[in-house]
Amino acid sequence: MRLLKDQQRVAKEHFDTTIFLEGIAGTGKTTAAIERVKQLIRSGVATDSILVLVPQAALAIPYREALRRSRVATGGDIHTATIGSLAYQMVDLFFPLIADDIGFENPLDRPHFLSLELVQYYMTRFVEPEIEAHDYFNSVTISRSRLYTQIVDNLNKAALVRFDPQTIAERLKSAWRGDVEQGYIYDDAQISANLFREMCVRNNMLDFSLQVTLFVEFLWKLEQPRRYLMQQYKHLIVDNIEEDTPATHDILRDWLPHCESALLIYDSESGYRRFLGADPVDAYQLKKLCQTHIKLTKHRVMSSDIQAFQSEMARSLNQPAPKSPKNSDAREAIVYADNRYHPQMIDWAAENIASLVHSEGVNPAEIVVLAPYLPDALRFALQTRLNEHSVPNRSHRPSRALREEPAARTLLTLAKIAHPQWNIPASKYDIAYALTASIAQFDLVRARLLVDIVYRNRQLHPFEQISNEKVQERITFDLGNRYEQLRQWVDAYIQDEPLPLDAFFSKLFGEILSQPSFGFHDRYEAANTAANLIDSARRFRQTVNKIEPHLDTSPEYVAMVDKGVIANLYIRDWQLEKRDSVLIAPAYTFLLSNQPVEYQFWLNVGSSGWAQRVNQPLTHPYVLSRQWTEGRRWEDADEVAVNQETLANLALGLIRRCRKKVYLGFSEFGEQGYEQRGTLLMAVHSMLRRLRREEEHV
Amino acid sequence: MNLPEDFVFSPSSLQDYVDCPRRFQLKYLQRQRWPAAEVDEMLEFEKRMEQGQRFHQLVHQHLLGIPADTLTKHISDESVRQWFETYLKNGLTDMPKTRFPERTLTIPLGKYALLAKFDVVAIGDKAIIIDWKTSRKIPRREWLAKKLQTIVYRYVLAKGGSHLNKGQTIEPEQIEMRYWYAEHDGATLSFTYDKEQFATHEANLLHLVDEIDSRPDFPLTEDMPRCRFCTYRSLCDRGTQAGSLVDWDTMDTDDVDLADFEIDIDQIAEIEF
Question: What would the 3-class secondary structure string for A617-654 be?
Answer without folding.
Answer: CCCCCCCCCCCCCCCCCCCHHHHHHHHHHHHHHHHHHH
